[in-house]
User: Fold these one by one.
Assistant:
Number 1:
Amino acid sequence: MFHDAAFQFLKSYLGRWMIQVSLCQEEDAVSCMAEMDMGLRRLLHMEKEGRSAFESFFASAAPYILYRVQDAYLCRYIFLLLPGEKRVMLAAGPYTPMEITRERLQEEMENRHIPPPLFPRLQDIFASVPVIQDESFLLNALLSFGETLWQKSHSFRIEDMSAPAESPLPALPPEQEDTSGSSDIRMIEKRYAYENELLAMIRDGHVHQLSLLQKFPALAYEQRVADPVRNIKNYAIISSTLFRKAAEEGGVHPMQLNLYSSECATRIERISSFEEGGRLMQEMAVGYAKLVRSQSSAGFSPPVRRCMAHVMANLSKELTLHSLAEQLNISPGYLSSLFKKETGQTLTAFITEKRMALGASLLKKTNMQVQTVAQYCGIADVNYFSRLFKRIKGISPQAWRAEKKGK
């Protein structure tokens, strides 16, 4: 097509900001959108509604307009109809105008009746969505692209619109949450088990044991976008964030983490192939582990640090002495005595303290119902959560929220 060179330039330019750019033809509009949203609607079982909304929009789009679309899932896209006999649309996105914090995502999930067990996977997806606070460069680039293709025969305008309403997701019955796509579930479980093992090694500074990286094939990374380089860049960004948090839990000072993570961000931007991205992620894992080994000031033994890290990463799940000991491959009695000896408190007290700290943060930063906050803290009974919270904080969850939000 006559616009191929201009499209490749635009794709390369916007790629520096991690913004996807695609060309969607009318006959494959639905599959194009499915690739763009990185599997979000598939995860939420909203593909049918998304298909209907996008087909309707594609059919009605007019020339000489930049459509800036805000969808129901906190993401923005920009669409532009291209000249030619066949209807072809340029699509840029997704991106967000502001960072989607953990608390904001949890609050939006409650508003849309999305069950909490889906939170880790949604958080993973949104970690790949670039934050673009100043959209002027993006809009100007797309306007220039449109004017070039249409030979400036018309003046362009920007039209803001919301995506057609998509029904809120009904809460999934427990038996439906994990029964579809057994092979996909096994791959996801394998990926997350590998990830947890890798993060534990970084937390403990086990540099020489990171040969674990070699046993996990690169193809196990889910292909969320069509461009393999963009896909691996997205995973590299996510990995750097996870590695940084693991190193922080291993006792590395934030100043050291900031310096190294900035260096990693620069290298991620320069990735030019899937293989290069895989090598960089291995180097980042080793680099963060070396920081832990040389800079750690946590003062706890590896089993206790790993136990603490597992608790912090799984506060919404059931946590018991026996399950944690099994996770660490040590006896419950040994873990209990070692944890008390090094920290001065029981493991149960530590778990309760961290759950109440999370609850206090969610009550302050979100408007979620107390019952939902309790679920994120791993406590199904809201009355029990309220009693624990009052015992630890001295006031009820409702009073805490009123006091903190009033400041």
Note: The chain is about 55% helix and 10% strand.
Number 2:
Amino acid sequence: MTILPPTKAGEVDVAKGPRRLATGLLVAMACLFILAGHMGGHSPVWGWVRAFAEAGMVGGLADWFAVTALFRHPLDLPIPHTALVPANKDRIALSMGNFLRGNFLTPAVVARRLRGLDMAGGIGRFLTRPAGESGGGTRLRAGLAEALGEVMRALDDERIGGVVRAALRGQLERIELAPLAGQLLGAAMAEGRHVPLLDAALLRMGEALEENEPLLRAMIERHAGGLMRWTGLDAKVANAVLAGLYRLLAECAVDPHHPLRTRLEEGIASLAEALVHDPAMHRRVAALQAEALANPAMAAWMNGLGAKLRAAIHRAASDPDQAFAGRLGAGLSGFGEALENDVKLRLTLNRVARRILVGLTNRHGASIVTLVSETVRRWDAQTVSRRIEAVVGRDLQYIRLNGTLVGGIVGLGLHAAQGVL
């Protein structure tokens, strides 16, 4: 919220022109008053001029005093009830805080102001806007990209990697992996989605058996007795064993009711049950999960995600329109279309957004009000006076102008009334 302009070094006196105009008009009234006094005996018109100039001069001086008394002592004289803004700086700060609290940062006010605001629809229109279209969407994207670029320039790779690593580690540590894996495995078996995996496993076992056939033959022949090797029966035994294994895998692959396949499915179902309900299994899986998270390779992978995130944000900052292209852009555009076309989704998101904003106001509204009040309270009196005057000074100078002219008109009226009476 922009309450006041920048500090003294960057301030622009927007009231300089109107102030000169108001002062010049006051000086003109004084000169006209003197001239009318000298010329009063030549024509009755000069009486009207004198009355106009005299009343205008009084009105201008009164308004000059009133405007000046708001911010400083007129003519540096310590007149009571002048320099009102510097003298009441702390009360102004408290009043600003109370104004914010009572009119903006209360849950009821925020909820009422957000009730008719279609935030989800606005997000949907922004996401579906073509990348090259001019207007608010493009400006908003450019602004967001610039802000992201500034944030990324302020953070180094190590800090970003640490943030990503801490966030991922915290989320992964909170996941109860064993029950989740057991539920997924049980659901897959209930829907028959484990069958292709089991078929693939049997096929891979057959390929592994074929690839390692020479090794298996050598093992069988090495463990055969000397008599079997002398008679050549070791090779026949090896052939029989390998043929039996090939036949077993083939039958298990083609027969859904094969005993071995049934035992494998029972083992998978038992594993799923243990993952969900067995505390000892939970502890073993949790230990494996903790060991994996503590592994340096996992930390390096998480740091790599942080570096990729920074690179992606840099690309978005350098070319915001390109960042909304490709698969990401298509996905965001599809989500935007869903927000625009799905009334229920839009209402749900708007309701959630309002609830979040009202909750933030309820939790942090008082802190924001205190921040504003304390910030103004810490300013020195001259800074507060100078900054408020820089904001409203232009209008106050026009009050001086109007006071001078209105005073002159009132003077003409009084002069006319004096003539009648």
Note: Residues 15-131+324-421 form one domain.
Number 3:
Amino acid sequence: MAKRVTINDVARAAGVSRQTVTRAINNMGEINEQTKQRVLEACERLGYRPSRFARNLVVRKKSRAMGLLVASFRNPYYTEIAGDLLNSAAERGWHVLMASTETEDEAAALDMLSGQVDLFVGHLWLADDDLARAARGLPVVLLERAGERPGLHSVEVDIREGVRVAVSALRDRGARRIGMIDSAGSGPGYVPSSRRGYFEEFAGAGSAGMVVAGDESITGGGRAFTDLVGAHPEVDAVLVFNDLMALGAVQASNALGIDVPGRVRICGFDGLTLGEAVHPALTSVSLDRHALVREALDLADVLAEADFGVLPPMRRTVRPRMLWRESA
């Protein structure tokens, strides 16, 4: 197990005292330029990242801080996870600094926080080698994605099981012609999501022709629902890529005069609290963000106990569950 480089390691490499290292990295007086440069070169060579956050803590002798990378503050799924993690992390004695990968690229966000935190948590999609390089040796807990190299740990969600449970549950409630609204993605062309692949696997023959795609928004979901029932009026249940789009589907059903759940059952995918704000309230496949946060913080605690060293990949898995409300 490789230990994180400490200020004592830098002091030994530069042939100076710990206090001199502190003066150099804080650009303080009482140190000549040649010695300062030698210390800074040792920091660079060893990969030492001084924690500005920790230096600013006056009353705590011991602190630990995590950097939370939020994929988008516009999507309530990510903001609800962030809110849950902030509350739970505080209860465990963690300080949390946040950055959004929506407003700047992942590497830049990681670099910005790397000198202030002990590890990273978040939805990150850089390739493993690029991610490890951008994290500058700090451990990373990936959400909803696996890491394959030491230092990259993960809490995955069993999406396939979530789709299986949803299709089975809709059938148990009488659905016979189940359609799906998939995400159109953000690229120039439509690439079917893994959720669509799982849907076709469990919905069976003919299901591929019962899928439409839309933008990942309330408006996009509403338009896609209108297209789906227009092309396939026989549809009696719809599984939607995420809750935002499903909210749009519920709104569109009201505008079209389609009774939900009497005529069509609508099921989202996320389990957002916002689903309670529409009528009928949105049934959803809950990705169980509380379990996601709990498992991520459990991994963070293990890494703290190991002094944030580079450990072999640790993986946890969260199983989705049905969140029954009114729309299905």
Note: Residues 52-61 have pLDDT under 50 and may be disordered.
Number 4:
Amino acid sequence: MSAVRPRSLFVLCLVEFWERTAGVLCAALLVLFLTEARGLTPSAATALSGSFLALTYFTPLIGGFFADRAIGPRVATQLGALICVGGYAALALFPAASPWWGLGLIALGQGCFRPGITSSLARLYVPNPELRDHGYSLFYLSVNVGGALGPLLGSAVKRLYGWSSVFVLASSLMMLSVVSTLWLPASERTTARSAPTGNAYSPTAELKTALPYLAIFVVYMSVYAQTSGALLLFARDHVQRSILGHAVAVESLAAFPSAFVLTATPLVSAVIHRLRRQHREPATVIKIIAGLLVTAAAFVVLSVVSRHVRADQKVAFIWLGLSLALMSTGELLVVPMMQSLVGQLAPKSAFTTAFLFVAMSAGYTCGGWVGTLYERLSAVGFWGVCTGMAGMAVVGMMRLRKSGDDSKNVDRTASSARW
């Protein structure tokens, strides 16, 4: 088979784009909806929203299990999207009912959708593994485009037509996601949910292989979570937020990573494509290590410039911009490449790929605990802790890479001995 990019990649990117547009639209406006339309107190709305988001990261374990055992990844994707349609519709059409009816359906739908589509993506590249990393980068781009567009559409529709219209829009977007799955080529609709034979397929073995990498991903997400937490507090209190005489709102900085990813993805893809043509493309693990090193460098910048913080002196905005650019570059290398690596290690197990979302949830949770140190330590000390954690992730990935290389050498030696 020639190494051509599978047509289904673009269909899956479109399916994911519709879902992320609807999902981030709901997540971004949920607290406002619960307080303004449902009359919840801010604390109750925040607690409910947090519980809902946490649930969406754990339900993929259930969906992944059934995708592996019964329905297959494509049907899981379609079923999850349809359940989400019902969840968003319930929020729009039944204002007197508990919001948990709609939110529960959405969480269950995402639990089927997420492992289904990520497993489908992993299976596309079993014949052409050399294209896997680029495919995951394009897929991650569709995630960010949908994530950036969703809140803008939701806020505009809410201003024009009210809260019910926001969830009607989300439900309509999910219907487009369902319809988009019908564009999969006939030869790829029945992707590889074949019955296990012998020891050719073992979900337990795949999960065992992937777990060390997922543990490192948790550490990475713990420090990356500071971009929406401690880093904003640092920017508010210690950064001169002015560009060409115009003040930059702290809230707008939260959108910088996604905007940078959207801008930088084509450039990074072009560089990797050029290296691939020259047969010099680095391995997936090397890309992850590079992303972790860049992330550590971002925290080094913050730690160094924090030494100059005084009560009457603030850090120049350019240093904050540099650290955010480095973190976003690290994200672009780590997150899609970690997804690609897990897809490589577990190409047939939707259940194993579901642990990516569990790792994200655990990482954000640990990131919240790490963020509590911001008030207890000096800025220099706090960013030093983050640097150390990123460094630990680098060392862990390097050790896993070395052990992987050693295993391959042992396998090659054993194979030669048999021959």
Note: The longest helix spans residues 379-418.
